[in-house]
Automatic annotation (TrEMBL):
InterPro entries for this protein: Astacin-like_dom, CUB_dom, EGF, MetalloPept_cat_dom_sf, Peptidase_M12A, Peptidase_Metallo, Sperma_CUB_dom_sf
Gene, per the UniProt record: LOC111102614
Domain of life: Eukaryota
UniProt binding sites for Zn(2+): 294, 298, 304
Domain CUB span(s) in chain numbering: 446-561
Residues in Peptidase M12A domain copies: 204-396
UniProt-recorded Gene Ontology molecular function terms: metalloendopeptidase activity; zinc ion binding
GO cellular component: extracellular region
UniProt protein name: Metalloendopeptidase
EC number: 3.4.24.-
Pfam family, one: Astacin
Length: 561
């Protein structure tokens, strides 16, 4: 029993790994980081107050002449599907289960502690793990002597690290080494500011350890028949968008991926594991395309988007609204790389704004650019930057000279599946990513439109706006261009009626610059009341409908300024 007691003591210390950063920050503070160099004006260009006031009066006068908008008497339809609060919120993953060399022994100990003295001895003689735990324990108590109570509380939630990520022994050791060598990263301020040397690690997204990168093709097997169709479709999408290839087997030996569906939620390890198969678990409520894409992203090497070291330039973590036992899920991950992709509010790896909240309705993540609140947390599709980062990680050698190409405009790059083509951001296509579209259904009212901003306002409407409303699965794109030296200004007016779901499955999106990055998205019936002004002479407007619900849509007005 003494050995068992020692084991449990060690377990408590190790489980607290993800608490280190959070508690130390309560005694330390740093200055805000510099604004991202690639986005010198993230809040959009300023406009003169007199110009906006004058236009506001014009709009008010114009809207006064319109017919009174319909009252909201129609009861809002129920959402097509009851989405889980967040795939990460229901995920339960054991930290110690991920330690490759002691997984079997640990599981036996948990179920048969009294009969497992031999297994306890085996666990105690894992020297690298013991050293990591000892150093972590020392760091914890140097950081904050008041952690004992939190450790007790954490023990009740031993199965989470960043919500849906398992941590193996080598990863734990790397984390210890990193924080010992870079103590400045222990000074994370969850309330929004933190200091960070600008030459440290860069802006990162993908696990950088060479041991985590897969050799292709990746072997996998599916143990859960209920999820088979979803898994196969998610794999198909990753293969279509990247050079990554998967190969199904009846069974796999490491390295490989085993898809299963037990009751422990939605989770995966980060990257390849050398000595054991990588498990991707899709439990009840997890068998959706978006969650499958998300978890495969983890297995390929992705961390969560808001775990990037530059995240505090873009979001504020509202720690006071987070369930205390889930604070560790908001840690910044040090050893990752983004391959020159900017922070992406629309990444399929980003938490939504209420993730791990103490109670329903509380925000836990606040976008520093408020227009991006409804962009965060989408689980509809891989974003352009999700795909680009993965291609730059795995596929650079597929094209002569790498994937970068001056031929591919608007943030595009060589398609690793066809090096003679460009991989274009959403809303653009063609040989050089300058053509607008493609659009579905293709019609004069559904995008693939080249609009010119003139001196006076012109109208832009979603398809069906003046009659029966928009169709489902519409994909409409409009490019609005102002004369040289001018910018595009746009505002919404009249009825604004877009299906309202937690993750904005239907939305209108406005891109003012950075056309490769996901822009502000809007849904529901709350019409945006501000002016949108492009950074340059071009603005991109996207309209997508994936909910299956039919609503009236939107009308916008635009001109040059």
């Amino acid at each position: 029993m003494l050995k068992i007691s020692i084991f449990l003591t060690v377990l408590v210390a190790f489980v607290a790994t993800s608490r280190i950063v959070l508690d130390k920050t309560r005694s330390l503070g740093f200055q805000s980081v510099q604004q991202h160099a690639d986005d010198p004006n993230p809040n959009g260009p300023s406009t003169s107050e007199s110009s906006e006031e004058h236009e506001t009066e014009e709009i008010k006068e114009e809207e006064y002449k319109e017919e009174e908008e319909e009252a909201g008497g129609e009861k809002e339809e129920e959402e097509l599907e009851e989405e889980i609060e967040d795939d990460d919120e229901i995920e339960k993953v054991s930290l110690l289960e991920s330690i490759d060399d002691v997984t079997k022994e640990f599981r036996n100990i948990r179920t048969n502690a009294e009969e497992s003295t031999e297994e306890v001895e085996t666990f105690q003689h894992a020297p690298s793990l013991k050293r990591s735990i000892s150093r972590l324990d020392d760091m914890i108590y140097r950081a904050n002597p008041e952690l004992q109570e939190m450790l007790k509380r954490t023990l009740e939630d031993t199965d989470m690290i960043d919500g849906d990520i398992k941590l193996d022994e080598e990863s734990a050791a790397e984390l210890v080494r990193f924080y010992e060598e870079n103590p400045q990263y222990l000074s994370l301020n969850l309330n929004g500011t933190r200091g960070m040397p600008q030459n440290d690690l860069g802006k990162r997204k993908i696990e950088q350890s060479s041991r985590s990168k897969w050799n292709l093709p990746i072997k996998y097997t599916i143990k859960d028949s209920k999820s088979r169709a979803v898994i196969k479709n998610a794999i198909r999408i990753w293969q279509e968008e990247t050079c990554i290839r998967f190969q199904e087997r009846t069974s796999v030996t490491p390295p490989g991926i085993i898809f299963r569906g037990d009751s422990s939620g939605c989770w995966s390890y980060i990257g390849k594991r050398a000595s054991a198969a990588n498990i991707i678990n899709l439990g009840n409520g997890c068998q959706t395309m978006g969650i499958a894409l998300h978890e495969i992203g983890h297995a390929l090497g992705f961390y969560h988007e808001q775990a990037r070291p530059d995240r505090d330039e873009y979001v504020t973590i509202l720690s006071q609204n987070i369930n205390p036992d889930k604070l560790k899920n908001f840690l910044i991950k040090p050893s990752s790389k983004t391959y020159s992709t900017l922070y992406d509010y629309g990444s399929i790896m980003h938490y939504r704004d209420e993730a791990f909240a103490k109670s329903s309705g509380l925000k836990t993540i606040k976008a520093k650019q408020p227009d991006y609140e409804r962009t965060m947390g989408q689980r509809t599709a891989l974003s352009f930057y999700d795909v680009k980062a993965m291609n730059y990680y795995y596929c650079q050698n597929k094209c002569t000279g790498g994937l970068s190409s001056s031929k591919c405009r608007n943030g595009g790059y060589k398609d690793p599946n066809n090096c003679n083509k460009c991989k274009c951001p959403e809303g653009y296509y063609g040989t050089s990513c300058v053509a607008v579209g493609p659009s579905r259904p293709l019609s004069t009212s559904c995008g693939q439109r080249y609009l010119s901003a003139l001196k006076n306002y012109e109208s832009l409407r979603s398809p069906g706006y003046t009659c029966d409303g928009y169709t489902t699965e519409a994909e409409c794109s409009w490019r609005i261009r102002a004369p040289a030296g001018k910018r595009v200004r746009l505002y919404f007016r009249g009825t604004f009626d877009i299906a309202c779901t937690k993750r904005c499955l239907d939305f209108v999106e406005v891109r003012l610059s950075r056309f490769a990055a996901t822009g502000p998205r809007f849904c529901c019936s709350n019409r945006p009341t501000k002016f949108f002004t492009s950074t340059g002479s071009t603005m991109l407007v996207l309209f997508r409908t994936y909910s299956g619900l039919k609503k009236k849509g939107f009308e916008a007005r635009y001109r040059y300024v």
